[in-house]
Amino acid sequence: MSVPTELGYTAKHEWVVIEDGVATVGITSFAAESLGDIVFVEAPEVGSEVSAGEPCGEVESTKSVSDIYSPVSGEVVEVNEALEDAPESVNSDPFGTGWLFRARVSEEPSDLLSAEEYTKLTEGEE
């Protein structure tokens, strides 16, 4: 499993990178593999507020429906509209074209895991 070192992670298997006050959020390859084939993504709406640690959307796979938890608090400024037609890109490229949404961060998150910490967390779950 690939865990990019430049990203922050949550215990609920989301990743985040913050550039110029805007966070890009997605789910990790561990989460994508665990879910199986993703068939639908419901991201939060542009203009809505998300809160760190709170559910803000859903990912539906052939196995189950799982909540998306925001790793940051702020206003959603963009959603990955390409996922409407190609939700499987979350499986094939979770850290790239499979990103879920972007939010203007109202407060820097302080509880993100490093790649090393996230890898240790997931080793017990495989």
UniProtKB/TrEMBL annotation:
Kindly state what the record says about how the cofactor is bound: Binds 1 lipoyl cofactor covalently.
InterPro entries, per the entry? 2-oxoA_DH_lipoyl-BS, Biotin_lipoyl, GCV_H, GCV_H/Fam206, GCV_H_sub, Single_hybrid_motif
Q: What are the recorded Gene Ontology BP terms? A: glycine decarboxylation via glycine cleavage system; protein lipoylation
GO cellular component terms listed in the entry, alphabetical order: cytosol; glycine cleavage complex
Pfam families in UniProt: GCV_H
Q: Which cofactor does it need?
A: (R)-lipoate
Superkingdom, natural source: Bacteria
- Physiological role: The glycine cleavage system catalyzes the degradation of glycine. The H protein shuttles the methylamine group of glycine from the P protein to the T protein.
- Give me the gene this protein comes from: gcvH
PANTHER family reported in the protein's UniProt record: GLYCINE CLEAVAGE SYSTEM H PROTEIN, GLYCINE CLEAVAGE SYSTEM H PROTEIN-RELATED
Which residues are modified to N6-lipoyllysine? 63
Which keywords does this Swiss-Prot/TrEMBL entry list?
A: Lipoyl
Instruction: Provide the protein name.
Output: Glycine cleavage system H protein
Entries under NCBIfam families matching the protein: gcvH, PRK01202.1
The Lipoyl-binding domain sits at 22-104
Can you state the subunit structure given in the record?
The glycine cleavage system is composed of four proteins: P, T, L and H.
Family assignment from sequence similarity = Belongs to the GcvH family.
Record SUPFAM superfamilies: Single hybrid motif
